[in-house]
């Protein structure tokens, strides 16, 4: 058995060495393919423009969407609770539906719950010193534990209990509150507010409005509310294995418990499938694909057709079919990956530029965006080269003699 | 090296089927020796190009046998045949089929590159053949910057760079004026033909007959020795 495995390994190694040798053997032929490609500057440029533009379009749309999805879940990420209890109709964290107080008590008494705290999340209007109003998101933390508090860069967390105490998040929207500092005062729904801390959070919000943190009690006191005031109940389970039974118990109560990841997925699902955003992204992706394929594919095919007789001459001289196929695949792949690099570079540059001008700009280039664009480019290269390869394989050297 | 370069017997080739069937070669037999420059002449459509393709391992005959240096080339598989053409046969096409955007040296180096030789080494070697055809100073120019006669010489340098035993020239003067055509064939006779090489030329240009060792007539798919000796 061991001997057999050893032989298989040896044969694998030998195949690998052969393939390396073959690649090495093809070096001159691939260089020939490269020269044929890049010296036809007009077509090479047209193909690069087609692929780069398609990649750029796709990357831009998908990165915008990724950014939107991430920012839409900013409160979930920033608060960081393991399990969120909410009304079943809640789609996104910013559209909370207040629950009666008994839900908090009921959850606290459930099996598997280590502790549970209320969270307030709502909007309010801040009157600025120039008399203008600015919408803000107010997060009300549990008075006892301050669970979900942000990391402070100035001030002390216990000052949140001080009279009119608020903590402001220093993010891209910070300037909209006239760059407040420690001790700055403002008016919030005719109540006085004082900045007692400046914080930073991992992710900024989607809607471009500043965020203030205060205690739960002060939040419901300052902001007019309907009968119920608890936006979410944040739960810390005793262990991860307790989560399923907590979810069941909450469901029996008529509410919904979601883990942090499930809540983020629900938010993403809402934006992808229930807002039309996903459809728009899909349409744009398809358009990018069609643009890339039609521009580059057609140009590449024309390039092959123009050189068809010369490929036939190479065949007559003694080039093997697989060497010609290798040349075409190399040309298609080289063009595709160069175009991909240019497209990604252009998109990254523009996102960087936009973020310099608009710090809250939502675009975010993720590995999945890169992978989707790469997949599209590979398909474009495969389709383009498929038709080229077919033509080259079909040409008979005899046709070259016949003219 | 045996003296017989090419020995073909009973070659039959037809195209199409049924009513559309056209006989291109009708029981053609041929023998060419090293040191010979054999012309195959005849009117258009007589089967000259078909015969050239069959002899050079490009077009499979329906019947008959082709021995090149004693090897039955139509008994080889497609890869072996490609290797055979690359190693033994040099082609000069009627329309040259040079890559317009490569330099003349790169064009001339193609057989060496296909033989998997190092790129720079291939270019250096190709330049030697460009020197033979008198174009070394133009080795860095693209073919489009050359005259028709010069392009033909690049095509010859390309064919020679593979150091073939057999050189196949298809209508080598078709795109050239009379003087240039004569100069090219004179050059081939003096500098390319030797006792270890056989050259087969398909032409219908009788102004270059003086350079042939032997002339064969092709009429309606049949081959016959031309009357009289070449001048």
Describe the structure.
The complex is a heterodimer of chains A (403) and B (231). Chain A folds into 2 domains: 28-70 and 277-402, no CATH class; 100-254, no CATH class. Chain A has helices at 2-25, 27-38, 41-72, 74-79, 101-108, 216-222, 243-252, 260-273, 277-306, 308-317, 321-357, 367-394, 397-402, and strands spanning 83-86, 113-127, 133-141, 151-155, 165-169, 185-188, 191-200, 211-215, 232-237, 256-259. In chain A, strands 2-3-8-5-7-6 form a 6-stranded mixed barrel. Chain A has 13 helices and 10 strands. Chain A is 56% helix and 17% strand. Chain A has 403 residues and is α+β, with helices and mostly antiparallel strands. Chain A starts with a helix and ends with a helix. With 231 residues, chain B is of the alpha/beta class. Chain B has a single domain (36-58, 76-225), classed as 3-Layer(aba) Sandwich (Rossmann fold), CATH 3.40.50.300. In chain B, 31% of the residues lie in helices and 27% in strands. Chain B is built from 7 helices and 10 strands. Chain B has a 6-stranded mixed sheet with strand order 6-7-8-3-9-10, sandwiched between helices. In chain B, strands 2-1-4-5 form a 4-stranded antiparallel sheet, with helices on one face. In chain B, strand 9 and strand 10 form a beta hairpin. In chain B, helix 5 crosses helix 6 and helix 6 (148-161) runs parallel beside helix 7. The mean pLDDT of chain B is 90. The chains are: A alpha+beta (403), B alpha/beta (231). Chain A binds chain B through residues 25-29, 31-32, 35-36, 39-40, 307, 309-310, 312-321, 323, 396-398, 400-403, and chain B through 49-50, 52-53, 56, 58-59, 78-79, 82-87, 89, 91, 93-95, 97-99, 101-102, 106, 110-111, 113-114, 116-119, 122, 162, 170.
């Amino acid at each position: 058995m061991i001997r057999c495995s050893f032989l298989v390994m040896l044969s694998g190694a030998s195949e690998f060495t052969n393939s390396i040798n073959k690649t090495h053997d093809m070096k001159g032929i691939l260089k020939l393919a490269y020269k044929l490609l890049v010296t036809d500057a007009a077509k090479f440029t047209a193909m690069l423009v087609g692929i780069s533009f398609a990649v750029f379009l796709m990357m831009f749309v998908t990165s915008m969407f990724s950014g939107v999805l991430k920012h839409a879940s900013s409160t979930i990420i920033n608060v960081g609770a393991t399990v969120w209890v909410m009304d079943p109709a809640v789609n996104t964290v910013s559209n909370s539906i207040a629950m009666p107080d008994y839900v908090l008590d009921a959850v606290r008494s459930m099996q598997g719950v280590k502790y549970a705290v209320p969270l307030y999340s709502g909007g309010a209007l801040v009157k600025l010193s120039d008399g203008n109003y600015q919408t803000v998101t107010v997060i009300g933390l549990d008075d006892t534990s301050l669970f979900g508090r942000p990391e402070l860069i100035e001030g002390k967390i216990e000052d949140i209990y001080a009279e009119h105490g608020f903590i402001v998040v220093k993010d891209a929207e910070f300037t909209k509150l006239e760059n407040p500092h420690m001790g700055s005062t403002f008016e919030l729904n005719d109540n006085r507010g004082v900045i007692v801390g400046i914080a930073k959070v991992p992710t900024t919000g989607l809607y471009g409005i500043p965020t203030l943190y205060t205690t739960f009690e002060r939040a419901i006191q300052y902001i007019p509310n309907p009968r119920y005031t608890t936006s979410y109940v944040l739960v810390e389970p005793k262990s991860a294995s307790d989560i399923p039974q907590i979810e069941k118990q909450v469901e029996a109560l008529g509410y919904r418990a979601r883990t942090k990841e499930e809540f983020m997925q629900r938010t993403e699902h809402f934006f992808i499938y229930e807002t039309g955003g996903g459809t728009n992204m899909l349409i744009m992706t398809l358009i990018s694909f069609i643009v890339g394929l039609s521009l580059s594919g057609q140009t590449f095919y024309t390039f092959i057709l123009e050189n068809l007789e010369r490929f036939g001459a190479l065949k007559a001289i003694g080039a093997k079919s697989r060497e010609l196929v290798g040349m075409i695949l190399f040309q298609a792949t080289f063009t595709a990956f160069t175009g991909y690099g240019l497209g990604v570079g252009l998109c990254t540059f523009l996102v960087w530029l936009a973020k310099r001008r608009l710090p809250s700009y939502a675009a975010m280039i993720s590995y999945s965006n890169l992978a989707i664009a790469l997949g599209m480019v590979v398909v474009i290269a495969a389709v383009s080269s498929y038709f080229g390869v077919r033509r080259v394989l079909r040409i008979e050297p005899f046709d070259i003699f016949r003219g | 090296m045996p003296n017989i370069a090419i020995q073909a017997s009973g070659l039959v080739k037809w195209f199409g089927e049924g009513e559309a069937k056209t006989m291109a070669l009708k029981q053609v037999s041929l023998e060419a020796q090293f040191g010979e420059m054999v012309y195959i002449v005849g009117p258009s459509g007589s089967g000259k190009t078909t015969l050239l393709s069959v002899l050079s391992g490009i077009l499979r005959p329906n019947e008959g046998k082709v021995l090149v240096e004693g090897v039955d080339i139509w008994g080889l598989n497609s890869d072996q045949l490609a290797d055979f053409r690359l190693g033994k046969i040099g082609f000069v096409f009627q329309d040259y089929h040079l890559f317009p955007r490569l330099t003349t040296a790169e064009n001339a180096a193609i057989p060496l590159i296909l033989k998997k030789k190092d790129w720079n080494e291939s270019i250096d070697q190709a330049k030697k053949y460009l020197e033979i055809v008198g174009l070394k100073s133009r080795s860095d120019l693209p073919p489009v910057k050359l005259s028709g006669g010069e392009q033909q010489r690049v095509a010859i340098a390309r064919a020679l760079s593979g150091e073939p035993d057999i050189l196949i020239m298809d209508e080598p003067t078709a795109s050239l004026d009379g003087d240039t055509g004569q100069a090219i064939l004179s050059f081939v006779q003096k500098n390319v033909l030797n006792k270890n090489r056989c050259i087969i030329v398909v032409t219908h240009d009788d102004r270059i007959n003086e350079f042939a060792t032997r002339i064969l007539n092709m009429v309606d798919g049949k081959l016959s020795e031309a009357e009289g000796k070449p001048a």
